[in-house]
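User: Reviewer 2 asked us to show a designed sequence for the structure in our supplementary figure. I'm pasting the structure tokens here. Could you produce the per-position amino acids so we can include them in the response letter?
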């Protein structure tokens, strides 16, 4: 889907509906959430007409976008808790693949519930499926709501504001030919979106490497102490009996 055409066609209310569907309904994973938010920020800037051909309300975006993302995700969690794994017991199709669910479960188990809910916001597809997965796996609704709010605000308002503040620079660089640069911009947005995950994975790997090193040093130290004790015992046994008496 072309995010620019979506903004021109559906406007502010349509963007709210898309964010709700992408985070709350399993069929919404194919919506271009990141690029849509970025271009929505551009559409709220002073150069909106020149670049997008439509104008959006910045307060409407900053308030409505996170609310719709929060409500959508909360619905997804409720559906997962209500219907369980049978939500995902369907054959693979063009719109649904079990690997999407498995990927969401992987992040949930790897980073823990709180981090997973926040970080998943920045990963396409995972942000759709992790919410019902959290419900299926029994994450407390109140705890989910807390981290759902944090993740939704960081994701929606963060990307919207980036688009808003970069809009004039984009206009100066590409003029009204933003269509040619949508794909590179989307690639950049996806990279920036995945960056928190890459950083978290690097930290996890570094932590595990440190733990393995600590364990290895401990084993070597224990083995060294044991060896020294054994050598001392053997030396003591080899000494003449009169030396022991003296």
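Assistant: Here is a per-position design you can include in the supplement:
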């Amino acid at each position: 889907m072309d995010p620019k055409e979506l903004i021109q066609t559906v406007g502010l209310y349509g963007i709210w509906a898309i964010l709700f569907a992408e985070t709350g309904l399993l069929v919404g994973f194919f919506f271009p959430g990141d690029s849509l938010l970025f271009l929505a920020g551009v559409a709220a800037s002073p150069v909106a007409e020149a670049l997008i051909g439509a104008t959006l309300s910045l307060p409407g975006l900053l308030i409505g976008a996170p609310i719709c993302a929060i409500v959508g995700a909360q619905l997804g969690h409720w559906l997962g808790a209500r219907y369980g794994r049978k939500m995902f017991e369907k054959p693979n199709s063009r719109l649904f693949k079990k690997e999407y669910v498995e990927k969401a479960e992987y992040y949930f188990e790897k980073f823990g519930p709180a981090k997973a809910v926040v970080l998943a916001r920045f990963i396409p597809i995972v942000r759709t499926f992790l919410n019902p997965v959290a419900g299926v796996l029994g994450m407390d609704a109140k705890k989910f709501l807390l981290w759902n709010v944090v993740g939704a605000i960081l994701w929606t308002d963060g990307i919207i504001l980036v688009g808003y503040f970069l809009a004039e620079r984009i206009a100066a660089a590409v003029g009204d030919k933003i269509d040619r640069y949508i794909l590179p911009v989307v690639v950049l947005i996806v990279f920036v979106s995945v960056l928190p995950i890459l950083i978290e994975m690097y930290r996890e790997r570094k932590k595990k490497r440190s733990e393995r090193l600590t364990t290895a040093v401990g084993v070597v130290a224990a083995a060294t102490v044991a060896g020294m004790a054994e050598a001392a015992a053997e030396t003591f046994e080899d000494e003449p009996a009169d030396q022991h008496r003296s």
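For the response letter, you might also mention the following. The chain has ten helices and no strands. Residues 84 and 136 are 5 Å apart (CA to CA).
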